[in-house]
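fold-stage: in
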Amino acid sequence: MKSYCGTTIFCLIAGDCIVIGADSMAGSKNCPIDSMTKLRPIHNCIIACEGLGALYKMETGVIYYRADEWMAKVEQNFQFATDARTIASLIEATHPFVDIFKVERQAYSLYEYQKGKGYLAEFLVVSIVAERFSVVTVRASVDGMNWKIVFKTTVHLDRPSPINSFLHHEVGRIGEIKKAFSGNGDTYEDMLVRTDGSFGRLLGGEKVGLDELRNIARSVIALEAKANPETVGPPFSIATLQHGKPVVVMSYSK
């Protein structure tokens, strides 16, 4: 069994909206998948996946787990509006890692993969319900002591809108993002150039427009791609979530 990973997911909450973005690079040079959509709208929610995104048999190249295809199945469970916690509960109850782990050879492969990362995958789920923002993560990992798959759900945000300043949350490869949000150094200066100064205004407490928020999300992911070209890359998917409005997803080549 062969696995693939390497993703940056970035979430920015400001004013009355949530902007979330992800890269789309899928796999190493030997992986049969070229790209993968790592975030998916589900009515008034968005789900994104970081970590182990695909599993395939090296001998045949047959893929038996893809995060994007599984997230599409999650969407089919919800005909109407839902919230981040409900989706998080569904992830814990139905994720394929549980069944994959039941096969001994596959179980040891997942365990070996986790040694380098510390966990298998992390899902970031955001929602706006009745003008209330929610940001939840679900981390899947192997419990080596009890030899089973376990899930840890963490609620990072659950509060009414609007957000007077801004909040952000990111998972995966996030070293450059941390440098940028420090407010100084070359990476911060790079962000000022990429965003025509709007990133500096955001950090300074000023209100920035929706298009500027999208550009900030795209730019920080592009910085991670520049620093990690073998695991993070375009196209970059940027989704916007606002109360009472349909989710808007845009794709950027750089």
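fold-stage: in (second)
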Amino acid sequence: MTRKTAATVGKPTALPVGYAGIHGGIVELLDAARSVNNLESMRRFFIL
């Protein structure tokens, strides 16, 4: 087991290049899925 020194305990880890772009794309996909789900729920409400 490795021992963490005081210098490494509070240090943030570096994210891979392109992580922000991938994360942003995933967030956009989730938002789109929520929008579609909301539209489908509204459609069911008004048809019933």
